[in-house]
Design goal:
The N and C termini lie far apart (43 Å). The longest helix is centred in the middle third of the chain and has 30 residues, at 87-116. The chain is elongated and about 65 Å long. It has 2 domains: 13-83, Arc Repressor Mutant, subunit A (Orthogonal Bundle); 97-247, Tetracycline Repressor, domain 2 (Orthogonal Bundle). It has helices at 24-31, 37-59, 66-73, 78-83, 87-116, 123-140, 142-156, 162-184, 190-209, 213-217, 227-247, and strands spanning 13-14, 20-21. Helix 9 packs antiparallel against helix 11 (227-247). The protein has a two-stranded antiparallel ribbon. It is mostly helical. 29% of the residues are buried. Strand 1 (13-14) and strand 2 (20-21) form a beta hairpin.
Length: 249
């Protein structure tokens, strides 16, 4: 059964021009009463985040303006400053909204796996808990989660400020995985464990970027949108790398 992993979606009417219309009045009408100011603000905030996420995932932080977001929603651009002080604040809110979901789910999966091993985790088991849980979000969460995955790939490859965001949101869950890998491979050198993680996260982020390059290289045999195919292979493939490097010591 698919898990509902997406944050609350705000349905938006479309004007003839294709722009989204603020949806507070519509949802209130469905309930038979006027929305409160808090409800209106919450709905508009979600709509701004959804639209900004889509635009940022395609064009990056520097390729999008607050005016672009306002135009897509169908509101005056001055309204944007009421909700978010500047573009970077909006970007951070977009990134953080789903980061808490994926980091929490992966931490829960790693904790559950750890508790099930009687103190004897395996490399592949730990990687399945870490990778499969994350990939399930993008498989089950639809377009918006895939947009977020592409955005995450951009952030992770932006040295100026991206590393700070990744540290803030993901260090605890990454260090939990590292701890399990060290216990699974007690003779492995620390540097090999950390380099191994580096290779794992690099492959994951390239997958989330969905560049379409593998589609062309493989002549269509592989599709960058096929996260199910990635899920079947990635943890096992990466486990083999850890075992090969650490087993040679």
């Amino acid at each position: 059964m698919a898990v509902d992993v997406a944050p609350k979606k705000v349905k938006a009417r479309r004007k003839a021009s294709g722009k989204a219309k603020p949806s507070g009045a519509k949802s209130a009408k469905a309930r038979g009463k006027r929305p409160t100011k808090a409800e209106q603000r919450a709905e508009m905030t979600e709509q701004i985040l959804d639209v900004a996420e889509d635009l940022f995932s395609k064009h990056g932080l520097y390729g999008v303006t607050l005016k672009d977001v306002a135009k897509q929603i169908g509101v005056h651009h001055t309204l944007m400053n009421y909700y978010f002080r500047d573009k970077k604040k909006l970007f951070d809110a977009v990134f953080g909204r789903r980061a808490v979901v994926t980091s929490t789910r992966r931490m829960d999966a790693l904790d559950a796996y750890d508790a099930s091993t009687n103190g004897k985790p395996t490399v592949e088991g730990a990687l399945h808990a870490f990778l499969d849980t994350d990939l399930d979000l993008y498989i089950q969460g639809g377009k918006r989660w895939k947009n977020y995955g592409r955005l995450g790939a951009q952030v992770a490859n932006t040295p100026e400020w991206g590393a700070e965001l990744m540290d803030k949101h993901f260090d605890p869950v990454v260090l939990k995985l590292i701890g399990l890998l060290k216990r699974a491979l007690p003779e492995c050198r620390d540097e090999d464990i950390f380099w191994g993680y580096h290779f794992v996260t690099g492959a994951l982020l390239l997958t989330l970027a969905r560049t379409g390059r593998i589609d062309k290289l493989s002549g269509g045999v592989c599709q960058s949108e096929d996260f199910e195919a990635v899920k079947k292979r990635m943890a096992r493939f990466m486990a083999g790398g850890f075992l090969a490097v650490c087993g040679s010591q």
